[in-house]
User: Which sequence fits this backbone?
């Protein structure tokens, strides 16, 4: 969850931990990377020993990483093995490895910014996390802005009402779920087919930029969330050994993802719509763009030589045109859906790369 400060992210997570009593809370701004993951420590006899951090020490439990912007993008990248395989490998002076099948909830403000800087909350995720593959490892994400939380909610006294499901029962239920393995999961007839259909439908609704949903892993995310829904409802066999995933659980998981991503403040659905419209516009103008590029060979050579993006002033220098002419080139490519803004640079869209390859093949 990425969001503005004072919107209740940390308090909600702490209440969750207090109720389920199955994890711990870590403030990443006050902790070192070694404290979170692990590091080397020199002992009194000058020998080096591996000291594991909070995440591997909480194997098969929950860790809430608060203020995740306290971790650099490079440190988040170093956690790739932990998040994908549940294993930490220490390959330094002293080599060792440990299990880290830890459930992680990430909470953070935008990195050095506020949510007001972004049109949509999803735009705050890439600067915070960094690499696409690290973003893709999240099961799901959401955003929270000051507009989502009313001031009356912030200043309201904590509720003293007894929860409908008491802490002891919730702890037993979540520990039961976490003690299950893949062989304990049983799918109702038609449920696995529904997972694939849901993944296909979500793939049509959302683009993979940023890659929260990708064609290659959407079915895995829907399946994992479906098992989580079934577990939270204690859907089991008569002896309480297996988790029974029903079709309704798959539908609930799909609706939940769509609900999060369609929210206006998060903007994943709207950005995907804009991206799809841009793609349609690009392919509709492909012949016109091809004819335009073929009339300007220097522009073709320039575009083939840049690595995915360029600045407008570079067009002036390399194509030998005036500032006004360079602006006209960029504006035309943008109107045709072949480029899009990326900060101070101009990003080349997939349709433009495809067109350049087609022109090069024809030249051969």
Assistant:
């Amino acid at each position: 969850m990425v969001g503005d400060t004072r919107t209740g992210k940390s308090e909600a997570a702490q209440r969750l931990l207090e109720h389920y009593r199955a994890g711990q809370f870590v403030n990443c701004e006050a902790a070192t990377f070694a404290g979170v993951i692990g590091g080397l420590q020199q002992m009194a006899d000058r020998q080096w020993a591996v000291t594991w951090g909070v995440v591997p020490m909480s194997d098969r439990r929950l860790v809430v990483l608060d203020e995740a912007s306290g971790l650099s993008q490079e440190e988040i990248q170093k956690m790739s093995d932990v998040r994908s395989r549940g294993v930490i490998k220490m390959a330094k002076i002293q080599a060792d490895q440990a299990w880290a099948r830890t459930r992680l909830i990430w909470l953070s403000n935008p990195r050095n910014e506020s949510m007001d800087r972004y049109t949509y909350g999803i735009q705050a995720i890439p600067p915070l996390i960094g690499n696409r593959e690290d973003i893709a490892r999240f099961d799901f994400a959401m955003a929270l802005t000051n507009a989502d939380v009313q001031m009356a909610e912030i200043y309201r006294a904590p509720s003293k009402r007894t929860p409908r499901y008491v802490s002891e029962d919730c702890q037993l239920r979540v520990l039961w779920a976490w003690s299950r393995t893949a062989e304990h999961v049983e799918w109702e007839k038609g449920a696995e087919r529904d997972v694939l259909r849901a993944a296909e439908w979500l793939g049509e609704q959302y683009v993979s930029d940023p890659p929260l949903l990708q064609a290659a892993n959407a079915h895995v995310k829907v399946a994992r969330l479906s098992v989580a829904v079934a577990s939270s409802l204690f859907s089991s066999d008569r002896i309480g050994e297996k988790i029974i995933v029903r079709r309704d659980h798959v539908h609930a998981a799909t609706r939940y993802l769509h609900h999060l991503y369609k929210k206006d403040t998060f903007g994943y659905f709207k950005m995907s719509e804009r991206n799809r419209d841009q793609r349609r516009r690009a392919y509709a103008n492909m012949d016109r763009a091809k004819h335009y590029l073929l009339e300007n060979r220097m522009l073709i050579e320039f575009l083939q030589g840049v690595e995915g993006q360029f600045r407008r002033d570079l067009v002036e220098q390399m194509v030998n045109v005036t500032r006004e002419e360079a602006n006209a080139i960029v504006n035309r490519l943008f109107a045709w859906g072949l480029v899009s803004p990326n900060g101070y640079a101009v990003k080349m869209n997939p349709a433009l790369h495809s067109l350049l390859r087609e022109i090069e093949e024809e030249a051969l």
Notes: Residues 2-154 form a domain with the Rossmann fold fold (CATH 3.40.50.300). The mean pLDDT is 90. The chain has three domains: 2-154, 180-268, 285-363. The chain has 18 helices and 14 strands.
